[in-house]
Amino acid sequence: MSTEPLTALSYNIHKGFALSQKFVLGGIRERIRSVQADVVFLQEVQGDHSRHQKSIKDWPGPQLEYLADSVWSYSAYGKNAVYLHGHHGNAILSKYPILAFENIDISNNRFERRGILHAIVEWEGAPLHLLCVHLDLTDKGRRRQNDHIVQRIEKNIPPNERLILAGDFNDWRGLATAHFEERLNLKEVFMTTTGAHAKTFPSPFPFLTLDRMYLRGLKPTRAKCHDGNPWSQLSDHVAIEATLISD
Hints:
This protein is α+β, with helices and mostly antiparallel strands. It has helices at about 25-35, 50-55, 65-70, 140-155, 175-185, 190-195; strands at about 5-10, 40-50, 75-85, 85-95, 100-105, 115-125, 125-135, 160-170, 185-190, 210-215, 220-225, 240-245. About 20% of the residues lie in helices and about 40% in strands. A six-stranded mixed beta sheet has the order 3-4-2-1-12-11. A six-stranded mixed beta sheet has the order 5-6-7-8-10-9. The longest helix is centred in the middle third of the chain and has 18 residues, at about 140-155.
């Protein structure tokens, strides 16, 4: 198998709003395009919102289509939170064909609707599994969801196939990495390259390590946390990026 690099980006876009509640989706689109990532894992993507459609001048409609347009030919959306005026969830953008995708409900309560968006792309002539998540705020809820993730991978992904698990884990205590390494032998990108998780929240002064990227069958040659301007003026999180090759 060749070692053609693949660039992956993970970003909680906060439904296109900055911490100030200014609508900044255009800036977010510009930034993620500047990375030129092959695959993009997005959280808090607004699928629809009838009130924003009427009140925000530059509202583009479904955010996934706006973000993917003309750059990523393939995309998948997992609707998680549904409410009176619309819905939001996770999304994956890919420059490689998506062979299949599924959104698995791992919600623990009606107030935090969560899912695993699992897509399979073809890369270098073989499957590559992409799993995008955004987990609960409570430690108990996250532990249950981490177990769901482990079960999904054990039951649905052959052990010889490569995978990337990325997203907002809300894991400020840093417990998930040991769990995934012990159960699945997954390696976290920033722990592998720098010895510490990336600080990604809140974007103006990030000190919490909420966003992660875990790998199997791949290894990082480069990892970058997009802190500082202009990323710090966009979502409440900053994005993480990795360049990967087959292990």
